[in-house]
Every structure is written in structure tokens, then in C-alpha cells.
Write a structure and sequence with these properties.
alpha+beta, Alpha-Beta Plaits, 2 domains, globular, DUF4265, Phosphotyrosine protein phosphatase
């Protein structure tokens, strides 16, 4: 998607629905950085989210004005959302993994004490990305998961990248 956003320099925080808390059954919302697109209620995410499923950096969404935090995905950017969860803070792992992913064109979008979120284009290749992640973040101290590759209900691959391969 080319830069169709007339307000590309305007960043805003959107509050998106991320799920239901498992113990208190309350809705969970995550604030994500976005920029408005030309149409009302449409935005492009600037970073991949930590908890909201199915989205990655530069994806386009439309906010449902009638339901707090609900949205519709308009267009995949081609980026994968990769989440790394740490049992304990590990600055060395973050530095090493970030450097390796940056060599492949990826970026660190979110860093907390026990989690990191990366965006990387699927064109790098799933096998290359997974080999790297398995080397650095596949132990009892760190685990990784895709945020926008599998259906959260069924676990089946979403295969959205197949349409991008056709272009």
C-alpha cells in the first residue's frame, strides 16, 4: 500500500480490543500507535501490538464506532508480528535477537521487562525467521509466537500471505 494517508505525520493512540481476562472476564484493551488514512475511522498501525491478535505493523484497519475497541482488518501489510515472552528480564537476549532480526529487515516495536514485539516482512521467509527465533528464544527462559499467522480459535494458519504472493 502506498502512502494514501493525507495525515501521515499525525500519530494517534487507538484503543483496540485484545480479549477477555481469563479470571475476571473483563475486556482487555491495548493502546496501539497509528496514523489516520484518507477515509473516516481508517488507520494504519505504526507498530505491531503486544496483545491484539491478527495485526502487525503497517496493517490498515477500520474502527467500529459502535463497539469499543472493535475493528475490521482492511489490508495486511505483509509484516509478521512476532512476540517474544521472557520468564525473567534478559537484556542480552534482547540485544542479540534484535540485532539478528534487524539484519533481516525486522524491527523491535515494543519492549517491556518480559516481552518484546517485532515486525518483519513475511518475504524474508518463514523458515529463516523461525530458525532464528528458535535459536534465540526457544527455551524455558524465552518463548516466541506469531501474533498474526494463526487463527486464535482454531490454530489453523490464516494464509493471508498467499494473496500477497499473487501480486
Amino acid at each position: 500500500m502506498t502512502d494514501q494517508a493525507p495525515f501521515a505525520d499525525q500519530e494517534t493512540l487507538l484503543e483496540l480490543f485484545a480479549g477477555i481476562h481469563p479470571t475476571n472476564n473483563q475486556p482487555i484493551f491495548e493502546k496501539v500507535l497509528a496514523t489516520p488514512l484518507a477515509n473516516v475511522s481508517e488507520y494504519r498501525l505504526l507498530k505491531s501490538p503486544l496483545f491484539v491478535r491478527g495485526l502487525a505493523a503497517l496493517d490498515s484497519i477500520k474502527i467500529n464506532e459502535d463497539a469499543r475497541g472493535r475493528f475490521t482488518l482492511l489490508e495486511h501489510s505483509g509484516n509478521l508480528c512476532v512476540r517474544v515472552f521472557l520468564r525473567q528480564p534478559n537484556e542480552d537476549l534482547e540485544v542479540q535477537l534484535t540485532a539478528e532480526l534487524e539484519k533481516l529487515g525486522g524491527s523491535l516495536d515494543i519492549k517491556t521487562e518480559r516481552a518484546m514485539v517485532y515486525s518483519i516482512h513475511f518475504g524474508v521467509g518463514f523458515s529463516s525467521i523461525e530458525a532464528l527465533l528458535n535459536k534465540w528464544a526457544n527455551s524455558d527462559q524465552a518463548k516466541w509466537v506469531y501474533g498474526n499467522v494463526y487463527d486464535p480459535e482454531t490454530g489453523d494458519p490464516l494464509n493471508w500471505w498467499q494473496a500477497l504472493l499473487q501480486v
